[in-house]
Design a protein that fits this description.
Layout lengths: L2 H8 L5 E3 L5 E3 L2 H10 L7 H17 L5 E5 L4 E8 L6 E8 L4 E7 L4 E8 L2 E11 L5 E9 L5 E8 L7 H4 L4 E5 L16 H14 L3 E3 L4 E2 L15 E5 L10 H4 L2 H9 L1 H9 L5 H22 L6 H33 L19 H9 L1 H23 L7 E6 L8 H5 L8 E5 L9 E2 L7 H6 L3 H11 L4 E4 L7 E6 L8 E4 L2 H14 L3 E4 L9 H7 L3 E5 L4 E2 L2 E2 L9 E4 L8 H6 L1 H8 L6 H24 L13 H9 L5 E5 H4 L26 H6 L1 H13 L5
Parallel strand pairs: 3-10, 11-12, 11-26, 12-15, 15-18, 18-21, 21-22, 22-25, 25-26
Antiparallel strand pairs: 1-2, 4-8, 5-6, 5-9, 7-8, 9-10, 13-14, 16-17, 16-19, 19-20, 23-24
Helix pairs in contact: 1-2, 1-3, 5-12, 7-9, 10-12, 11-12, 15-16, 21-24
Length: 716
């Protein structure tokens, strides 16, 4: 094995992989070198790779304590320790501090610690031993500081997590529930502004229980790009930690009600607002222009009426700023910087093109900018405050449901956004995340966002990761983690190279999983892991053991020619017919997606087209056989899909949570997103023709809700 191959293996970089078709693919050496360099170990040739291996070996044995230690469940807390030139009589002092302020301390002789192993490092002897800190710790984050007498102390984060993630009581007792799922921007409500908003979300949550649903699922609500509003994908956000102000229901804002200038301007814009709301597709540019014009007036009013007087509302805003801390200030500063620099030169919307002094969030020029443009910076903090308040209010409408608000967490961030700028030391710029070839994307997929650097992420003690989890669980009863295998590995694609030249890079799974579990309990949030696609061996079993719900789609749940029976679904799972990247049930049955893919050139030949249609005909026949096997059928009229029977089939599954897409409730045929397209298809823009009230009262929806209530009555 070459030195480069050994270095890649030691760093968790795959030298080969198998795609979804079972084809073995060797990773090009250029990809391995680029990945090694990104992880901090350049290896331009074999000699450099040998030196990098020696450096890595030294780092692994000279580090007194790793940056993060985890323990799950009722197990002892043990710290792995390393020492060069170890002396048995050397005394190690330690102090453990919990996030509740409790402190424990102690000392131990090196020779009295449990021996793990030894090595020779650069000609020097090294040992690895284990220190038991406690037989058990209450769940939480702890700081442990250790050091030998006369030497500086070294700190490490201890994550003490329960063995299993949180589960709502109704489901933990064996109950089964179902959820309504939709894309928030698609919703229509009376008095809308051309896009679904937090008021519409509250309305849907408020009526979900009447339909029999126990949850309402929505798309990611992450912040996007206000100055590039047509970049509408919620799965390629500027920030996963902060919210999109486009979802603000402006007329529900307290400051709008008392702002005469804003109210008058809305009256003047009434015709434009009504035209936006009549549109069949979300006009992101139009909605952004109108909303941000009014939001600015409302903010100026808040500053003069409240901040200037330091009244109760001003103090509430200051408390939100304090809670948001450095990351909120960085986000708001980024937004203000991008707005100022990008207005003068569109190329400077991307922070890597900014003047050098502004490219680092911790630089003096950035701090000076934030001071000099405080009004602008606080404008963006104000928008986040208002978005957080409205989301909290919407979520409260579902507080009596078994699960409530079910949110979605995108797998990554855009390289030009606030999160990448604020956390650039832990982002692997120069690579994109994607997926190897599979039946739905024969050339593979490049999702266009940079992966986190696993070594840097660990050195940072997962600060970005845990803060992002908290932000997304804050108001959620359940959170779906998109592409959950990212906790264990991600497929890295070098910038400018074909997808097939990518490779898998490993992540510290146990540590990241412990953080997910701990945050799920702290926020009382069920976790659902989207585990579709090519998975590493054993991942599903590990997630089941951690009580992370699996994500099962009926159209994928098959063995050969047959679809799995309801009793073959796992209990700790969410089951749905389809999802946002796949056709709706009506579209699937009519093969609308195949015709679209042919029109846009992703089906290369008539033979491929005919094969796709033949496979779909086989799918329909197999689904009908599955229904017949359960004595289901006959309740659906017409030539369309057996919609009620398929949902009854799904509802009878063992999965504790089943999903009804609003699209399927009203027999919508158009797909919300067609992967592999951009402007060719109106991705992330389709709106419902009916209002929320009209949809929920529609006889087609009522019939489907009745099926779900019969099969899944509300759990006690």
């Amino acid at each position: 094995m070459t030195a480069l191959a050994r270095l890649a293996e030691a760093l968790g970089i795959g030298r080969d992989y198998h795609d979804a078709f079972g084809r073995h693919r060797e990773v090009p050496p250029e990809t391995l070198r680029a990945a090694c360099a990104t992880l901090g170990f350049p290896a331009r040739d074999e000699a450099a790779a040998e030196r990098a291996l020696a450096e890595l070996h030294l780092a692994q044995w000279s580090e007194l304590v790793p940056p993060v230690i985890t323990a799950r469940g009722d197990v002892p807390i043990e710290v792995p320790l390393n020492a060069l030139h170890p002396r048995d009589d050397a005394v190690l002092a330690w102090e453990l501090r919990g996030d509740d302020g409790e402190v424990r301390a102690g000392e131990a002789r090196w020779g009295g610690l449990s021996f793990v192993g030894s090595a020779e490092v650069g000609g020097a002897p090294a040992e690895r031993r284990r220190l038991r800190l406690a037989d058990r710790l209450a769940p939480g984050y702890y700081q442990v500081d250790l050091g030998f007498a006369g030497a500086p102390r070294v700190g490490s984060l201890v994550i003490a997590a329960p063995a299993r993630a949180y589960e709502p009581p109704a489901l933990a007792r064996g109950g089964r529930a179902w959820a309504l799922a939709t894309q928030l921007y698609s919703l229509r409500a009376n008095g809308g502004w051309g896009i679904g908003d937090f008021a519409a979300l509250g309305e849907l949550l408020g009526h979900a229980g009447e339909c029999g649903a126990g949850a309402v699922g929505i798309n990611p609500l992450h912040a996007l790009f206000a100055d590039e509003p047509e970049r509408a994908s919620p799965y390629s956000p500027a920030s996963r930690q902060f919210l999109s102000p486009l979802y603000l229901a402006i007329t529900r804002m307290e400051d709008f009600a008392s702002c005469e200038a804003a109210r008058e301007r809305v009256l003047a814009l009434r015709g434009r607002i009504e035209a936006l709301d009549r549109a069949a597709l979300v006009d992101y540019a139009g909605v952004t222009a109108v909303k941000y014009e009014i939001l600015r007036l409302v903010y100026d009013h808040f500053r003069s009426r409240h901040l200037a007087k330091d009244d109760v509302r001003a103090r509430a805003f200051r408390a939100f700023q304090a809670e948001g801390g450095e990351m909120l200030r960085r986000f708001a500063t980024f937004e203000a910087l991008r707005a100022k620099l990008g207005a003068a030169d569109p190329a400077q919307r991307y922070w890597r093109h900014w003047p050098e002094d502004y490219r680092r969030p911790d630089g003096p020029a950035v701090a000076a900018f934030a001071r000099e443009h405080l009004v602008e910076v606080e404008y963006h903090e104000y928008l986040q405050w208002q978005a957080d308040r409205q989301l909290a209010g919407a979520a409260a409408r579902g507080a009596g449901l078994p699960v409530g608000l079910y949110c979605d967490l995108a797998v990554g961030i855009d390289s030009g956004g606030a999160d990448a700028w604020a956390n650039q030391d832990v982002v692997a710029i120069g690579f994109s995340v994607g997926a190897p070839p599979d039946p739905w994307a024969h050339a593979g997929q490049n999702w266009g966002f940079p992966p986190p650097n696993p070594r840097a992420l660990r050195q940072s003690r997962y600060a970005m990761f845990t803060e992002m989890l908290r932000a997304n669980m804050r108001h959620a009863g359940a959170l779906r983690i998109d592409h959950v295998l990212g906790l264990k590995r991600l497929f890295w694609i070098p910038e400018g190279r074909p997808t097939q030249e990518g490779t898998y890079v490993a992540y510290p799974f146990e540590e990241m999983l412990a953080a997910v579990i701990l945050e799920s309990h702290r926020n009382r949030c069920l976790v659902i892991g989207e585990d579709l696609g090519t998975l590493p061996p054993g991942l599903r079993e590990e997630l089941v053991a951690a009580n992370i719900y699996s994500y099962r789609l009926l159209i994928f749940e098959r063995e050969g020619e047959r679809f799995r029976r309801p009793e073959e679904y796992p209990e700790a799972a969410l089951a749905a017919v389809s999802t946002h990247d796949l056709p709706t049930l009506a579209g699937f049955w009519a093969a609308t997606d195949i015709r679209l893919r042919e029109r846009f050139g992703s089906i290369p030949s008539p033979e491929e087209r005919d094969r796709a249609h033949a496979e779909r005909a086989g799918d329909r026949a197999a689904l009908n056989r599955a229904l017949a096997g359960e004595a289901l059928g006959g309740e659906d009229a017409g030539e369309g899909p057996p919609r009620l029977a398929l949902h009854r089939f799904l509802a009878r599954s063992r999965a504790r949570l089943a999903v009804v897409q609003l699209d399927d409730a009203i027999e919508e045929a158009d797909q919300i997103n067609l992967p592999g397209t951009d402007r060719e298809h109106p991705n992330w823009r389709r709106r419902y023709v009916m209002t929320i009230a009209e949809m929920l009262a529609d006889p087609r929806a009522q019939a489907l809700f009745a099926v779900m209530r019969q099969e899944r009555p509300a759990p006690a």
